[in-house]
Amino acid sequence: EGFFVFFLFKVRGPPPAGSVKERPAKHTAFRKFYERGDFPIAVQHECGGNKIAWKVQIEELDYHYFLPLFFDGLCETEFPYEFFARQGVHDLLEHGGSRILPVVPQLIIPIKNALNLRNRQVLCTTLKVIQHLVVSAEMVGEALVPYYRQILPVLNIFKHMNVNLGDGIEYGQQKRENIGVLIQETLELFERYGGENAYINIKYMIPTYWSC
Amino acid sequence: KMPKDSEVTTEADIKPKSVRRAKTWSDVVENLYRFQQAGYRDEVEYKQVKQVEQVDFWPETGFVKKLQRRDNTFYYYNRQRECEDKDVRKVKIYVY
Question: Among A116, A166, A167, B23, which is 20 to 30 Å from A62 by CA?
Fold first, then answer.
């Protein structure tokens, strides 16, 4: 009789939790400020690709105001917002020097928002930006250690997202679009530049990570 | 005897006599690429037009760091190489 009941009431597994499902992106403050004309930037269409022309010298910009705004634009996926955010962050980090370190706490929320979208393209861009941030200035890697518990959970979800080609050749390796590889590179940079406590903090959030 | 890529000697008020295209990448070609991307022939024309004595270079690599275009906007360049192999042929080397 129990066997008959089993056939009547089919047991189903739990519903998917949606941990890797993309979340809808909202319009960011970066988009609002850009459309208002608050950013001193313009796009130049060169033969090798687009480039940002700055109307004001980067050395004169207030990093406390602009850098978090540009990081907020990492959530964008449409042109020109995505281009300006990505390239603008790159230029600001490349030429920021000692002005980046005091702004690091303000960058955590925009980074967390970008990672939480679970959008594959946004994930790749954000991971590359994080890698650049870690090596951009002295002590930035160590300054990020207290914020690992806010950034690393999403990386833990996507860490396994690799491609198993067997003995095939990954022709797109140079494009650096493999999320699993990017996450591994990012974690290794965190460990290298994060000081003594970096590894134990990474291990706490991502138990399957091994020291490089 | 053809002058080498590194033998671009100039004076401020002399216009270039000849031009040729770069064949292989070098530090000089990289800097020329950056100047030409900003709309100038080379460092000589940039100093003539902008009336500056020195150009911003990256201390680690010696590549151009920042240039002001003719419309007074600024171009910022990376510390590392930006000129890809496919763009080397587009770089013009002016001989004075």
Answer: A116
